[in-house]
Write a structure and sequence with these properties.
0% strand
Length: 253
C-alpha cells in the first residue's frame, strides 16, 4: 500500500497527509520486526515463515489495489486500509489481554494501554468501513439517523468508559474480578466500540467523509502507539504518535 500510494499521489491529491500516515505505519512495522527479532528468545523459523507469507499476501494485495484504483476512489481505499489497521490494532490488544489475563500478569500500566488500544481500534474498524461504504455508494451518502441515536451513542460511550474503568481498577487491585468476568467485560467494551463506530459515522453526510476518515486515521495511529507501550517499543510509540498527531492536525485543517 505504501509503494502504491507513493506512485499514485501527486501534489494536488494530499501527498503530505497520506504519505506521512503511510511512512508512520512503515516505521511501525519495521520497529515491530526489529523488536521481535532482537528480543530475548527471538523468533523461530516457523514464526519467520508466517511473517514472510503475511507480508507477501498483505503487501501484494495492498500494492495491487493501491496501484490499480482510480484516483477518484482513493479516499474510500484509504478508509478501507484504515479499517484494516484499526482492526489489526484491536486484535493485537485483545490477544495481549487474553494472554496476560490467563497468565495472571496483567499489570496496571499494561492493562490501560491494552484496553484503550482494543477500544480505539474497534471504533476505527467499523467507523472506517461505514465511511468507505458511503464514499463508494454502498451506503447512502445522506445522514442516516438511528432512532434515539444520540442516546444510543451516549449509552455506548458510558458502557465503554465504565468497562474500561472496571478493568483498570481490577488490574490495580481496587476491585476483585475473576478471569472469566474480566474477559467478559473486555468483550462488552469491544462490542460497544464496534457499535459506537457505526452510530458515530452514520449520521454524518458523505461530503464530510474525508474529514471523518482523517479523524479515524488519527485513531489508528493512537491505537498503534498503545501497542507500542505494551511491546515496550519506543519506535512503535513514536510512529503511532506521529500518525495520530498528523491525523488530528489534518482533521482540524
Amino acid at each position: 500500500f505504501v509503494l502504491g500510494l507513493h506512485r499514485r499521489n501527486s501534489p494536488a491529491t494530499g501527498r503530505s497527509g497520506n504519505q506521512l500516515s503511510a511512512a508512520g505505519m512503515t516505521i511501525a512495522v519495521v520497529a515491530t520486526l526489529i523488536y521481535l527479532a532482537t528480543r530475548e528468545h527471538g523468533l523461530s523459523a516457523t514464526a519467520w515463515a508466517i511473517i514472510v507469507v503475511g507480508f507477501a499476501i498483505g503487501g501484494g494485495a495492498g500494492l495491487y489495489t493501491a496501484r490499480g484504483v482510480k484516483m477518484t476512489a482513493m479516499p474510500q481505499l484509504v478508509s478501507l486500509f484504515n479499517a484494516v489497521g484499526g482492526g489489526a490494532a484491536a486484535l493485537v490488544a485483545i490477544e495481549d489481554f487474553i494472554r496476560l489475563n490467563d497468565a495472571g500478569t496483567a499489570a496496571l500500566d499494561t492493562t490501560i494501554f491494552v484496553v484503550l488500544g482494543a477500544l480505539i481500534g474497534s471504533v476505527t474498524f467499523t467507523g472506517s468501513l461505514i465511511a468507505g461504504g458511503k464514499l463508494q455508494g454502498l451506503i447512502a451518502g445522506k445522514p442516516i439517523y438511528v432512532p434515539v441515536g444520540q442516546l444510543v451513542t451516549i449509552a455506548l460511550a458510558l458502557v465503554a468508559v465504565a468497562g474500561t474503568a472496571a478493568l483498570i481498577l481490577g488490574a490495580a487491585g481496587a476491585i476483585t474480578l475473576g478471569s472469566t468476568t474480566t474477559l467478559a467485560i473486555l468483550g462488552v467494551v469491544v462490542l460497544a466500540g464496534l457499535i459506537f463506530g457505526i452510530t458515530m459515522v452514520l449520521p454524518i453526510g458523505g461530503a464530510d467523509m474525508p474529514v471523518v476518515i482523517s479523524l479515524l486515521n488519527s485513531f489508528t495511529g493512537t491505537a498503534a502507539a498503545m501497542s507500542g507501550f505494551v511491546l515496550e517499543s519506543p519506535l512503535l510509540i513514536i510512529a503511532g504518535a506521529l500518525v495520530g498527531a498528523a491525523g488530528g492536525i489534518l482533521t482540524k485543517l
